[in-house]
Specification:
- The complex is a heterodimer of chains A (398) and B (216).
- Chain A contains 16 helices and 14 strands.
- Chain A is α+β, with helices and mostly antiparallel strands and 398 residues long.
- In chain A, the strands form three sheets. Chain A has a ten-stranded mixed β-sheet.
- In chain A, a hairpin with a 2-residue loop joins strand 2 and strand 3 (75-78).
- The longest helix of chain A is centred in the C-terminal third of the chain and has 44 residues, at 247-290.
- The relative contact order of chain A is 0.17.
- Mean pLDDT of chain A is 85; it is low at 108-118.
- Chain B has one domain (21-212): 3-Layer(aba) Sandwich (Rossmann fold).
- In chain B, the strands form three sheets. In chain B, strands 6-7-8-3-9-10 form a six-stranded mixed β-sheet, sandwiched between helices.
- The model of chain B has no long low-confidence stretch (mean pLDDT 86).
- Chain B contains seven helices and ten strands.
- Classes of the chains: A alpha+beta (398), B alpha/beta (216).
- The interface between A and B is medium-sized, with 27 and 33 residues.
Chain lengths: 398, 216
Amino acid sequence: MEGLATRITVMCLRNLLRRRFRTSLCIFGVSLATIFIVAIGATTTNYTTAIREMNIFFSGDVVVVAEGAMVIQAFPVVGGNLPVSVVEKINQVEGVKKAVPMLVRFGFQVEAVIQLAPTNISIGIPPGNWSVLVGHTPLKPGGNWPSADPDKKEVVVGPALAKQYDLAVSSKVKGENTNLTVVGILDTRSALLSRSIILPLKLAQRLYYGHTMWINMVVAEPEEEGIQEQVANRIEEEIEGLEALTTHERHEIIEPLLHDVETWTLGLSSVLYLLSMILVTTVAMMNVSERRRDFATLDAIGAPKSAIFRMVITEATLIGLLGGLAGILLGSIAAILIASFYTNIPLSMFFFDLFNIVSPLFMMKILASTVAVSCVAGVIPAIAALRMNISEGLRSEY
Amino acid sequence: MYRLGASVIVAVNKVSLEIKEATFVSIAGPSGSGKTTLLNLIGLNDRPTSGKVFFKNEDTSLLSDRERREIRLRNIGFVFQTFNLLPTLTALENVELPLALAKIPPKPQREKAIQLLEAVGLTGRLQHRPKELSTGEMQRVAIARALANNPFLILADEPTGELDSETGCEIIKLLLSLCRKHKTTVVVATHDERVAKASDVKYSMRDGMIMRDVGL
């Protein structure tokens, strides 16, 4: 055996193995709590991040939708068609530099090799205005933006969709019973753009409405910075039946909800950590009670209080470490299963992308939290071990 | 003096004794006479309710818990009736433990521990855990552990209590040889007549009070 610290760690491991049934149950309990924390935390983090990310689109611009439409961040998700003629009216509002019409649909049904998952977004934009949506996002080499001619039926897809359905430039896909040609693949890591299908506005209108008279949103760019709110107010005053949302207003719609989701997730995690702490404390107290004579012997032969304290804390920490590792592994699998279930994306697609679902930083945070909670859980039993009277302890039975 | 609920138990009452260096002292008495409590007081495991304990002429009542622990580590070796070996450690590791606590480097720890176990006749049992040892072997390991830091004083509480007659005899011889060869002071609390007969100074204890047995 080596120095005292190593000796204590080895003794702790052996003590845990000596009561392997109890230790296993305790590790199982901690890992169960960790599984839920990882699975729920990773899932809500992914969704909230994706939703928050949606608000980086059209930053500084006013998003105009039909009154009563439900908007999540920058995009209408339910309701509210707008006549195309509204675009010209918006262009004439004082302070508006340019108004770009769009047609946005979630859950665009495209059949390729496998039935497409519902979580994708199709965005019809007038050709030449792609940067309003994608900014400076380039296409992967060899790709082009769709032609202005809607009859050519050309689309650009996001990289996640391309990977999922094995699409490349010139691939044919079928959408809304129409044959489409992929002419470009976005080079992006954006969650939303990765799963988007960008096509000429008129093509999108024909596919969804059968005509080109409706859209469902307009992005109005103000002439200068700082007048976003004034422009939005003017649009609403001058044109009936519209809702004009600034960046701040779009943020305010969803942020309280996301904040509530995160608060509930944090609350649930805290409860699970508390339950873990109670479990570890209980098991550690049982271990200390059964080893009164061992601790008394150590005290009698001159072991410092710190060694005894460290022994109990180390045992509790080891339980947290092992439970945490098992929980993170199983929780990551659970998070993937949840993501696969809700997105219909095959499991095999995720295992190469585990760290997108559950990031290494998230794993480290959870592991550190679990270990810290278990360490704290060992404090009361450690204090109990220290307060033991030597004489009484030496007389204890095993 | 102990409190047990509303009751007060006087375990050791008006005891006054002096133990000279390199003597083999036995304290005999029936169960409940206070022998173990007396050893715990001598060994600084307990503080007296009244009175003082002097160790090498130093008043231990003035010492902190840390200082008392240090004395136990470096100057006192304990041998218990129930051996009190740590069950998850091997014989060698149990003997190494006090050396590790005394911050002896690992290699000398091992060498000293092996030497001690050889001295008590356990050369072939170094890697065995207590449950794999006989009672006699466990007590030998306990004695080896007690000797780890070359203590000035060995306190043995009923060291032959759990042993058969033959094994008990061997243990007594071992303790005696420590005293004679190594000039270690040995104090044994015992029921065993053989220990009492072999000792240099005999005390008997009853109801917490001690008296020197002068052999009348």
